[in-house]
Predict the 3D structure of the following.
Amino acid sequence: MSFAEILGGTLSPDANIREQATRALESAENENFSQYVLSLTQELANESAQPPVRSAAGIALKNALTAKDETRQEQHSQRWLQADEGVRGQVKQGVLVTLSSENRQATTAAAQAIAAITATELPQGQWQDVIATLLQNVTSSNTGLKISSLQTIGFICESISPEILAAQSNTILTAVVQGANSEEPSQEVRYAAITALLNSLEFVRQNFDNEGERNVIMQTVCEATQSPDDSVQAAAFECLVRIMQLYYDKMRFYMEKALYGLTVIGMKHEDEKIALQAIEFWSTVCDEEIELQIEEDARDPGQPPERENYQFAKTALSQVLPTLLFLLTKQDADADEDEWNVSMAAATCLSLLAQTIGNDIVAPVIPFVEQHIRNPDWHYREAAVMAFGSILDGPDPNVLTPLVSQALPVLIEMVKDQVVQVKDSAAWTLGRVCDLPIECIQLDVHLHSMISALVAGLEDSPRIVANCCWAIMNLTEQLGGLDAETYALSQYFEGIITTLMRITEANVNENNSRTSAYEAMATLASTGARDTHAVIAKLGVATLDRLDATIAGLAQAVGVDDRLALAELQSNLLN
């Protein structure tokens, strides 16, 4: 069987053929490593070979030099470094030549292989001219070669410690900025260059310290956000996110001149990839400013701050907030609830914005909530609930208390809404309310109806169950009556436990509903007052009975899945 046939076998839909081919490759690798990597290189560079086979050869070559486990990685590196220098030279020449191939599968695999070799050799002071070779390729008139070489630079920047590449930052930066420039006619070249720039941002700190060079980088990235190609735009906004993470201190000028407007426009883009990155930009701004506020709070009085908080989030509130509220209404009823989308990203950003600016978030959000909380269109109804829940962490409790008192009757009612997305967000928001200082809730007015709604929610769909369990846990932790004869939940205690026990009888754990129910029971048991001890004792006996049943079930379990399910159940019971 030829090497090409073996590589083809690793791609076969037949599991037996794949296994045989994989064993054959492993055998060839272990018996004669030098011949193995040479054969892989030949197949990768073979223009007459099938593209999937060439790609498989390149990936196998990369895998011969890399490993996730540190010990294996060291072994792979040493094996390569101890190989004959002539063999290594032939391999390097072969992968570099492949970059000029017209087949993208082959060039991408070659780029990964070059990055793996570079990551092994460059830290040892070897293959020092690889970057120069790639940079020369970038100036070529061959568009395909420019793209593959920029892609390779990106992979290298991603896989090598910034300290090792710092000495070559100027030349790398020159090449990627040239490729990303708005005058570059090929949008594919611009995309490869912007991606390479993204991966190189960590080691160009010295360049960012230079105002002139920083201006060129920022102009290039900002212009790329206006590219006619959506992929280039998305990559450019992703670059801005990373730049804000790394270089917040140097962003004041660029925020005022361009970034406020560019990112708000980007958030409204119809392409979700672009909108998500633009929203992430403002989430990152908030993350940075929350961290700066934590540093400020921890600073000794009289000590000057190490970094200045420019309050970009507060400055942009009038532009960013209306856009976020609008995006909250862009839910997709058919979307997978675990799939990250624009409305979820907007809710997360709004929550971070509330933590960043505190009380100032309340006044502009509440009118949106009041306007849409009873909207007949469920998209707006759910957005209003989500908006209210998202601003509960940040403002002072005394500011929130009257709002919570006013909103609770509506939220409790909405846990019974006809639309599952609205019910889910209402249950989540009740959980957020129960996580506030307990003084924010008028227990004598709202507790009974809240408990009734949460217990009813426990018998709803799994996603509602998980949020209702979380709300109950937050409530009992705050009201906890360990040393008291009784507490506010005592009269509801047995009913809640009984309902939770029914949930845990199910054999499924969709949306972690069963796990959440067990966690809620454990929290109730650990916080209940003395007058709940009889119920807790019954719960303990029932739990032990179930644990005995799982031990007996293990002996009868047939497959791995059955054993894992029983192990998970035991973990819940022992909680």
